[in-house]
Write a structure and sequence with these properties.
The complex is a heterotrimer.
Chain A lengths: L2 E8 L2 E8 L4 H8 L18 E4 L2 E4 L12 E3 L8 H8 L9 H14 L5 H8 L10 H14 L1
Parallel strand pairs in A: 1-5
Antiparallel strand pairs in A: 1-2, 3-4, 3-5
Chain B lengths: L7 E7 L1 H4 L4 E5 L21 E2 L8 E4 L2 H8 L3 E6 L6 H4 L28 E9 L2 H6 L3 E9 L11 E6 L5 E5 L4 H12 L6 E5 L14 H11 L5 E4 L2 H6 L3 E2 L2 E9 L5 E13 L5 H10 L9 E10 L5 E2 L6 H19 L3 H8 L15 H4 L2 H11 L7 E3 L4 E12 L8 E8 L5 E5 L8 H13 L6 E3 L3 E2 L14 H28 L6 E4 L2 E4 L6 E3 H4 L1 E4 L5 E5 L2 E6 L20 E12 L5 E11 L6 H20 L29 E7 L16 H4 L1 H13 L10 H11 L1
Parallel strand pairs in B: 9-10, 12-16, 14-15, 20-21, 30-31
Antiparallel strand pairs in B: 1-3, 1-5, 2-4, 6-15, 7-13, 8-9, 8-11, 10-22, 13-14, 17-18, 18-29, 19-20, 19-28, 23-24, 24-25, 26-27, 29-30
Chain C lengths: L6 E3 L4 H13 L5 E3 L3 H8 L7 E4 L9 E4 L2 E5 L4 H7 L3 H8 L4 H4 L4 H5 L10 H5 L3 E6 L2 E6 H4 E2 L1 E2 L6 E8 H4 L3 E7 L7 E10 L2 E7 L6 E2 L1 H8 L5 H10 L13 H21 L4
Parallel strand pairs in C: 1-3, 2-3
Antiparallel strand pairs in C: 4-5, 5-10, 6-7, 6-10, 8-9, 11-12, 12-13, 13-14
The chains are: A alpha+beta, B alpha+beta, C alpha+beta.
The structure holds FE2/S2 (inorganic) cluster (2 copies).
The site of one FE2/S2 (inorganic) cluster has 12 residues of chain A, from loops.
C-alpha cells in the first residue's frame, strides 16, 4: 500500500484525509485542509516559510511526511490567529510582503513558549531557520522581544 | 522540463511515453510558437531548435495533478548536441565568440533597440556629452579600471506562479504573481494576437518582487498550457530551483571606466563602457542597458561624458529588473572608480564626492538641466553621512594586531527611465455608510504603497484612514491601469491619480450638498466624512446621506452614486536621442549617500558588518516606519548581494547553486545595525513632495562595501561578491 | 513533491525492522531505513533518490535511547539532533550539532540520518570519531557492537539490511576539554568550508574534520604534528596542513588552496584554545 486514510489533528480540529505515503505534511495541509498559512518557499528545508508547530516544537512541514504527523498535535498560522505574537508583528511592521510571516510566527511562538528566558544567542539560533527577503530582520526582532518581555 | 545544458542544439524531443500516462492532458513543446520578448522578440516561450541557458524550459507536461505531471515529465526524452558556451559579456563581444543568436539582426523590435547583426550585441545605447578631448586637456590626473559583476537573483520568498484558463468564447483569464498585470495583458495581445478586451489578468497580493516579477514568463507558459489542454484551467508553480535559474534573474555586468580630473579634484571627463549581461534573451536587458547609460556617472556633474552601454547575450539566465534597475551595478563600478581617483589625487574620497556632487543648474549625462525639485540635495546627504559615520575618525582604525575597523562610503542617484506615456488611474467609490473604497492598479508587493495611497486619499478628503477600504487585488478588467509596479513610482503616479480621484469625489459630494444646503460650492468644506458650510460647520451632511444621491423628505432624489475618477501621466518626458542620449528620461533623480563600517580580520581576510548607513533625499516622508522598513530591507538585500550572492557556473555554464541552501540570502544572525536618515527636498510634482524610496537603500551599498574592503587591504577591489576567498586571492596575487 | 510512491512501515522492534527489510528486499522494493527522512524527501523530490518502501526506525526503542547508564552514554540513531542538544550530555556533540543546518531543521534531522547522509559533511560523526565511541548496528546476524572507526572509514560500512542503532561513548570523553569551529564561505549561513572538532585526551589534542575532504575524518598524522612539543604554533599548524592524508576538495564553497589557508589559521586557533583550557 502506498497510501492510506489518515487521521490528523490540525488547529484543534479533526481531519480524515486520504494521503500518499510520499506526500509531505506541507502538501497535505495546503492541498487538503484549506489551511494555507504554511507557505511553500523551497520544499527543501531551506527557507522556513512552511514551518508549523508539531507537539509544541517548530517543524518544517516540507521536511516531514504526512504519515509521520499522523495523530500528532499540529498548529498552523491559522491556529494562532489573534495571538500576541501576531499582533506584535503588525504593530512593529515586522512584515512587508508577508510571505515569510506565518513561518516566523510559528517559530517565534514556539520559542516564546519553550524558552521565555531566551537570550540573544538562543534567538539568533532559532530565527536563523527562516528567511525574510523583504525586511532587514530588525522589525521581526523587535516584535519578538516585545512579546518575550511580557512573558518574563 | 528544464534544459540541462547552457547551450545545445535540441536533436529530438519525444513525448510519446509521457503522453501515455493516465491523467496527462498534453505536453507543450516549442514547436510552432511565436517569438516573445519585451523590446525585441528573440525568445521562444519554450525552447525550440536550441537551448540557450541552463534551466531554460524545454517542455511542459500538463496533467490532472502535480504528482502525475512530475512522473510524466521523467518520461519526456530530449536529446541534445552541446555547443560551446559563452559565459561573460567580454568573451561574448570578442571577434570569434560563438553566437548565442544567429538572427540578431532580423528579430522584430521596438524603436530605440539597436542590435549589431552578426554579433552577440542585442542593443547599444550611447551617451555623447561635451568633448572627451577637451576634458582631457583640462585635466592633470587620470585613472582607468575594469569591473566584473556576475549574475545573481531576486530570490523572493514566494516563487513565480500563474494560472490560466481559455474560455469557450475566447476569453483568457490569467491569475499571476506579478508586478505587471497590465503588461501581461498587453503582451498577450502582442504575442498571440488575443483581443485586449478578452484578456483579464488577476493579481492577488504578491509575495515579494524586487523587480523579478515585472518580467512576463510564467503567464505565457500557463496560457499555452491551457490552450494545449483544450482551454482547461492550468496552474503552474515554479519550484525554487526553477524560480532561481529558469525565471529571469538579476543581471551581471562588466565595465571599464576612465576618469579625468584636475589636481584639485574637479571631474573633467568620463569615458565609460558598460557591458550589461543579457544572458540568453534580451527581454528587459535592453531597457536595463539604456538605464545604465542614462545615469552612467553616478550623481556627479561632469561636462564631458562618453558612454557606450551594450546589451550582450551570453549562455546564462536572462535578467529581469532588480531593485535599482542596473543602478547598483553602475554605482559599484563608478563609485569604486571615484575612490580610486581619490587615492590617486591623495584626496579624501568624501571631499571628492562633495566637490563634484550634482547641484541645481548643472546637467546630467543626458544633458538635462536639473533643479532642486528634480535632483534634491546631495551635498546635504553627504554632510549628514559624514557626521553619522563619524568620518573624522578616519577610514581605517586599527583595533589590535589582527583587527581593523574600516569605513567605506559612496553616493547614489536614480531616475526611473519609464516609458514617457506611462499612466496610472484610480477610482473611489463609496459604501452606504459613507466609507470609501479605493481602487488603484498599483500591485501590493510588500512596499506598503497601497497604505500610502489610502493615506493620500484620507489626507485629501480629510477623512479617517480607517474608513477607507483599499482593494488589494488587481483585475485588469475593472481596475484602472497602473503601468507597472516598479521603479519606485507607485507613490508618484498612483498617488497623483488617487489624489485626483479624491478631489473629483469631493467636487461631486459638494455639488449635491450645495443643492441640499442651498449654499455655493465655494462656501462648502469637507472633513470627517461630512460636507458642511464653512462658516457654520454644524450645518452639513454626512457622506452616507449624499454618496448615493440625496433623498428629500418627499422622496425626490438628486445626485446618484458618486464615483471619483483620477489619473496621472508623467509630464514632459522624452525618448533619448539615438546618437547623443540627450533627453529627459524620467521625472526626477533621487539622490543619497551611504556608508558601511566593518571589522576586518587581517589574518583571515574575513569581515563582520558593524553598521550600514543611508542618508536619502526622500522629498517628504509620508510614513516614517514604513519608509525606514523599505530602506533597511533594501540595505539588507544590498549587503547580501555585495558580500555573498552570485550564481556559480561550472565550465559548461551550469548553475551550481540553484537552491536557497547554496544561493544564500542574508539570515537573521547576519544582520547588522542600520542607520537611516532622510533629507526632505520636495519633488514638486509628487503628492506632498515624496520621492520613491523602494530602491535607493540598495543602490550604493555594494560600492561602499567595496570601498571599505579596498581601504582595509590597500588593493583595489573590482568584482563582486566580496567573499573572504576573493580577498585572499588578491592578497596572494600581490605576493 | 515526490514523483514516485512508496510503502511506509514503522516497526517497533529491531527484529521486526530487519525482517521487514529482508522481505521487502526480496520483493524487489529497494527498501531503505528512514530516520529523520529530510534527505530522502529532498533528494527524492529532485529524482536523485528512489525507493518503493521506507522503514521508519523512530518507533524502535533502542534507536531513541538518550541516557547515561553507568559510565556510558547511549545515543540512538533516531534521535533528532535538537533533542540531543537539549539533553546536552556530550558538550562537543552539542556544539557540533548546533552548527548543522538550522534549528528548526534539527527538530527533524536525526543523529543517524546525519551520519548516514549522502552529503560529504556528516558533521555529527566528528565527536564520535574523537571519543573512541562504539557503534551498535543491527542486521541479519542481530545486534553488533564495534569501534567507530570500523564502522566509519571514509564511507559507512553497513551490510545489506543492516542499520545504525546507537552510539556508545565513555563518560571521560564527555568531560574532556573540547573545541569546535565551523568556517563558511561567508558569514554564518551555509555548508562548511571547514569544520574542525577537537577533544583533549591525556594531554593530547585530537582533531577531526569535515568539509575538507570528500568525507569527514580524524587524522593521527595531523594530530602528531599538532601535538609536537617545543614547536611554535604556526609551524605545528603548517605541518598538520602539509600532512592532510586525503584529497582536499575544490567546490563552490571554496578552492582547495583556500581551504588549506583557512585550515592553517583555524588550527592555530584550535591549539591556542586547547592549550589554555583545563578539564571542565
Ligand atoms: S518550504 Fe519548507 S523550508 Fe522552505
Ligand atoms: S516580508 Fe516578504 S519575505 Fe518576509
Amino acid at each position: 500500500m502506498t497510501g492510506r486514510a489518515a487521521h490528523f489533528h490540525i488547529n484543534g480540529e479533526e481531519y480524515n484525509i486520504y494521503i500518499r505515503n510520499a506526500d509531505t505534511l506541507l502538501y497535505v495541509i495546503r492541498g487538503k485542509t484549506g489551511f494555507t498559512g504554511a507557505k511553500p518557499g523551497c520544499l527543501n528545508g531551506d527557507c522556513g516559510a512552511c514551518t508549523v508547530i508539531v507537539n509544541g516544537w517548530p517543524v518544517k512541514s516540507c521536511l516531514m511526511l504526512a504519515v509521520e504527523a499522523e495523530g500528532e498535535e499540529i498548529i498552523t498560522a491559522e491556529g494562532l490567529h489573534g495571538s500576541e505574537i501576531q499582533k506584535a508583528f503588525v504593530k512593529y511592521f515586522a512584515f512587508q510582503c508577508g510571505y515569510c510571516t506565518p513561518g516566523y510566527i510559528m517559530n517565534c511562538q514556539t520559542l516564546i513558549t519553550q524558552y521565555p528566558e531566551a537570550d540573544r544567542n538562543k534567538i539568533k539560533e532559532w530565527l536563523d531557520s527562516n528567511i525574510c527577503r523583504c525586511t532587514s530582520y530588525e522589525e521581526i526582532e523587535q516584535a519578538l522581544y516585545s512579546v518575550l518581555r511580557q512573558h518574563r | 522540463m528544464l534544459s540541462k545544458f547552457a547551450h545545445a542544439e535540441i536533436d529530438s524531443i519525444s513525448t510519446d511515453r509521457a503522453m501515455k500516462i493516465p491523467g496527462v492532458r498534453g505536453v507543450l513543446t516549442g514547436e510552432g510558437l511565436p517569438l516573445t520578448g519585451e523590446e525585441m522578440k528573440d525568445r521562444p516561450p519554450v525552447a525550440w531548435g536550441k537551448v540557450r541557458y541552463h534551466g531554460e524550459v524545454t517542455a511542459v507536461v500538463i496533467a490532472d495533478d502535480p504528482v502525475t505531471a512530475a512522473k510524466a515529465a521523467n518520461l519526456v526524452e530530449i536529446n541534445y548536441k552541446p555547443l560551446p558556451v559563452v559565459q561573460t559579456p567580454s568573451e561574448a563581444v570578442k571577434e570569434n565568440a560563438p553566437l548565442v543568436h544567429e538572427n540578431t539582426g532580423i528579430y522584430e523590435k521596438d524603436e530605440g533597440v539597436n542590435p549589431i547583426p552578426g554579433t552577440n550585441i542585442a542593443s547599444h545605447t550611447k551617451i555623447r556629452k561635451g568633448s572627451i578631448q577637451r576634458g582631457r586637456e583640462e585635466s592633470e590626473v587620470t585613472i582607468e579600471e575594469s569591473f566584473f559583476i556576475p549574475p545573481s537573483d531576486h530570490a523572493a520568498m514566494e516563487t513565480r506562479s500563474a494560472a490560466a484558463e481559455v474560455k469557450p468564447d475566447g476569453k483568457v483569464i490569467i491569475t499571476t504573481s506579478s508586478q505587471a498585470p497590465f503588461m501581461v495583458k498587453k503582451l498577450m495581445n502582442s504575442y498571440f494576437g488575443i483581443e485586449l478586451g478578452k484578456v483579464v489578468v488577476h493579481t492577488p497580493l504578491v509575495g515579494g518582487g524586487y523587480g523579478g516579477k515585472a518580467s512576463v514568463q510564467q503567464e505565457i507558459l500557463a496560457y499555452l498550457a491551457s490552450m494545449k489542454a483544450g482551454g482547461r484551467p492550468v496552474k503552474i508553480v515554479y519550484p525554487r530551483e526553477a524560480d532561481l535559474i529558469t525565471a529571469p534573474c538579476h543581471m551581471g555586468m562588466e565595465a571599464t571606466i576612465k576618469l579625468w580630473a584636475t589636481r584639485d579634484g574637479k571631474l573633467k571627463a568620463a569615458e565609460i563602457q558598460y557591458l550589461v549581461e543579457a544572458g540568453a534573451y534580451s527581454d528587459k536587458a535592453i531597457h536595463l542597458t539604456r538605464a545604465a547609460a542614462i545615469d552612467c556617472t553616478g550623481p556627479y556633474f561632469i561636462e564631458n561624458v562618453w558612454c557606450d552601454s551594450y546589451c550582450v547575450y551570453t549562455n546564462h539566465p536572462y535578467p529581469a529588473p532588480y531593485r535599482g534597475f542596473s543602478h547598483s551595478e553602475v554605482h559599484f563600478c563608478f563609485e569604486r572608480a571615484m575612490d580610486i581617483l581619490a587615492g590617486k589625487l591623495n584626496m579624501d574620497p568624501l571631499e571628492l564626492r562633495f566637490r563634484n556632487a550634482i547641484r541645481p543648474g548643472q546637467t546630467t549625462p543626458t544633458q538635462y538641466k536639473v533643479n532642486r525639485s528634480t535632483v534634491g540635495d546631495l551635498p546635504e546627504c553627504i554632510r549628514r553621512l559624514k557626521k553619522l559615520i563619524r568620518w573624522e575618525e578616519g577610514a581605517v582604525v586599527r583595533i589590535n594586531e589582527r583587527q581593523l575597523k574600516v569605513k567605506g562610503i559612496s553616493c547614489l542617484w536614480k531616475n526611473s527611465t519609464i516609458p514617457p506615456d506611462s499612466t496610472s488611474g484610480a477610482i473611489i467609490t463609496f459604501n452606504e455608510d459613507g466609507t470609501a473604497n479605493l481602487i488603484s492598479g498599483v500591485v501590493e508587493i510588500g512596499t506598503g504603497t497601497k497604505t500610502v495611497l489610502a493615506q493620500i486619499v484620507a489626507e485629501t478628503l480629510k477623512m479617517d484612514i480607517n474608513n477607507i477600504f483599499v482593494r488589494m487585488e488587481i483585475d485588469t478588467q475593472t481596475t484602472p491601469e497602473h503601468w507597472k509596479t516598479v521603479a519606485s513610482r507607485g507613490t508618484l503616479m498612483g498617488g497623483r491619480a488617487a489624489m485626483a480621484a479624491a478631489e473629483d469625489a469631493a467636487r461631486q459630494l459638494k455639488a449635491i450638498a450645495s443643492c441640499v444646503l442651498r449654499a455655493r460650492i465655494e462656501d462648502l468644506d469637507i472633513a470627517d466624512s461630512r460636507v458642511f458650510i464653512r462658516e457654520e460647520p454644524d450645518k452639513g451632511l454626512h457622506f452616507k446621506d449624499i454618496a448615493y444621491g440625496y433623498t428629500f423628505p418627499n422622496g425626490n432624489s438628486i445626485g446618484g452614486q458618486i464615483i471619483g475618477r483620477g489619473n496621472y501621466i508623467l509630464r514632459n518626458l522624452t525618448h533619448i536621442d539615438k546618437e547623443t542620449g540627450k533627453g529627459k528620461p524620467g521625472p526626477e533623480w533621487a539622490v543619497g549617500a551611504q556608508g558601511v563600517e566593518i571589522q576586518f580580520d587581517c589574518r583571515d581576510y574575513t569581515y563582520k558588518l558593524i553598521r550600514a548607513i543611508s542618508v536619502l533625499d526622500a522629498g517628504k516622508v509620508l510614513n516614517w516606519k514604513a519608509a525606514r522598513g523599505q530602506v533597511t530591507g533594501a540595505m539588507s538585500m544590498g549587503l547580501a548581494f555585495a558580500g555573498r550572492e552570485a550564481f556559480i557556473f561550472d565550465k559548461e555554464g551550469r548553475i551550481m547553486n540553484p537552491q536557497l541552501r547554496t544561493y544564500r540570502p542574508l539570515h537573521f544572525s547576519e544582520k547588522t545595525e542600520y542607520i537611516v536618515d532622510f533629507v526632505e527636498t520636495p519633488h514638486v510634482d509628487a503628492p506632498f513632495g515624496a520621492r520613491g524610496l523602494g530602491e535607493q537603500g540598495l543602490i550604493s551599498l555594494p560600492a561602499a562595501l567595496g570601498n571599505a574592503i579596498s581601504a582595509a587591504i590597500e588593493l583595489q577591489v573590482t568584482s563582486l561578491p566580496l567573499t573572504p576567498e576573493t580577498i585572499w586571492r588578491m592578497k596572494e596575487a600581490e605576493r | 513533491m515526490i514523483p514516485f510512491d512508496f510503502e511506509y512501515y514503522k516497526p517497533s522492534s529491531i527484529s521486526e525492522a530487519v525482517e521487514l527489510h529482508r522481505q521487502l528486499d526480496e520483493a524487489g522494493k529497494k527498501p531503505v531505513y528512514y530516520s529523520g527522512g529530510t534527505e530522502i524527501i529532498t533528494l527524492s523530490r529532485l529524482n536523485l533518490f528512489y525507493t518503493e518502501a521506507v522503514i521508519d526506525i523512530k518507533g524502535i526503542p533502542e534507536c531513541c535511547l538518550c541516557e547515561k547508564e553507568g559510565t556510558r552514554l547511549h545515543l540512538g540513531a533516531g534521535l533528532p539532533l535538537a533533542e540531543i542538544e537539549r539533553a546536552d550530555y556530550f558538550p562537543l556533540l552539542t556544539v557540533t550539532s548546533k552548527d548543522i543546518a538550522d534549528n528548526t531543521a534539527r527538530m527533524k534531522i536525526t543523529l543517524g540520518g546525519n551520519v548516514c547522509s549522502e552529503l560529504i559533511y556528516r558533521e555529527a560523526i566528528l565527536p564520535f570519531l574523537l571519543s573512541d565511541s562504539q557503534v551498535v548496528t543491527a542486521g541479519a546476524s542481530g545486534e553488533v557492537s564495534r569501534p567507530v572507526n570500523e564502522f566509519f572509514n571514509k564511507e559507512i560500512v553497513l551490510e545489506k539490511g543492516e542499520f545504525l542503532v546507537r552510539f556508545i561513548t565513555e563518560e571521560r570523553f564527555l568531560r574532556a576539554p573540547y573545541f569546535h569551529t565551523k568556517r563558511r564561505k561567508q558569514w554564518n549561513t551555509g555548508y562548511p568550508l571547514i569544520t574542525v572538532a577537537a577533544l583533549q585526551e591525556e594531554g593530547k589534542t585530537r582533531t577531526a574534520y569535515s568539509g575538507l575532504s570528500p568525507f569527514p575524518f580524524r587524522s593521527r598524522i595531523m594530530e602528531e604534528s599538532l601535538n609536537r612539543d617545543n614547536t611554535p604554533l604556526r609551524r605545528k599548524a603548517e605541518q598538520a596542513v602539509n600532512n592532510i592524508p586525503h584529497e582536499i576538495i575544490s567546490d563552490s564553497e571554496g578552492s582547495a588552496e583556500y581551504r588549506k589557508f583557512v585550515l592553517k589559521n583555524v588550527l592555530m586557533d584550535v591549539m591556542t584554545r586547547m592549550g589554555r583550557r583545563g578539564p571542565e
